[in-house]
Amino acid sequence: MRLLIADDHGLVRDALSSHIERQAPGAVVVGAASVDEAVVALRQDKAIDLLILDLRMPGMNGLDGLQRVRTEFPLLKVALMSGLARPDEIRGAFTRGAVGFLPKTLSATELLSAIQTMLAGERFIPADVNTADTADGASFTRREREVLDYLLQGRSNKEIARSLELEEVTVKLHVRGICRKLGAKNRTQAVMRAVEMGIAS
Questions:
Q1: Which residues are 102's β-sheet partners?
Q2: Of 115, 103, 110, whose CA–CA distance to 78 is shortest?
Q3: Which ranges carry the Response regulatory domain (predicted)?
Q4: What residue numbers bound the domain in which 109 lies?
């Protein structure tokens, strides 16, 4: 996979690149220090699979930078990254076509799982951010719905990972997302909420 990380802090770019390349040997990570540099890099390298864009980077102007990139490269997968973002900013990012939001507090393993999730065509939303006004079946991604179905069967994370051919840490991220959307503190409560709300299939 080929990634472009756009962040005005060189240390952040270097740290993220090291984490990703260590976790995924063979991955190619390119860096940019501004939206302008990111656009130039994307014009030169048509093989970039995912752009990770710092929300507070110079040139972003809120979400204008994301809109600019999406307008010129409509097929490119773009994820926002930030140490702190308001729920309305994250919702706005998804409205503008972002495929995920990456908190800078993610561990290296969680970061790689989030990247793999987005490259597989799923959205990644941090578990501690509520981007939906209501929790219903329609708010789940396809993968979250599959994981929820297995939770309802009483399967463990390891069993779900084996059945869906995913890493266990990826399943844990999906379970966290399900709990967030259902307003549940843990998987047991999530199952109870799903049954109460008639989401269970």
A1: 81
A2: 115
A3: 2-119
A4: 2-120
Give yes or no: residues 99 and 24 share one domain.
yes
What CATH number is associated with residue 34?
A: 3.40.50.2300
Evaluate whether 144 touches 178 at the Cβ level (below 8 Å): yes
Tell me how crowded residue 74 is: count the other CB atoms within 10 A of its CB.
8
Encode pLDDT of 157-176 as tens digits: 999 999 999 999 999 999 98
Answer whether residue 5 shows pLDDT above 50: yes
Distance (Å, rounded) from C-alpha 35 to C-alpha 43? 12
User: Is the per-residue pLDDT at 99 higher than 50?
Assistant: yes
Q: Is the pTM of this model over 0.90?
A: no
183: left (phi over 0), alpha (psi -120 to 50) or beta: left
CB 191 within 8 A of CB 152: yes
- Fill in the DSSP letter of residue 101: E
3-state secondary structure of 133: coil
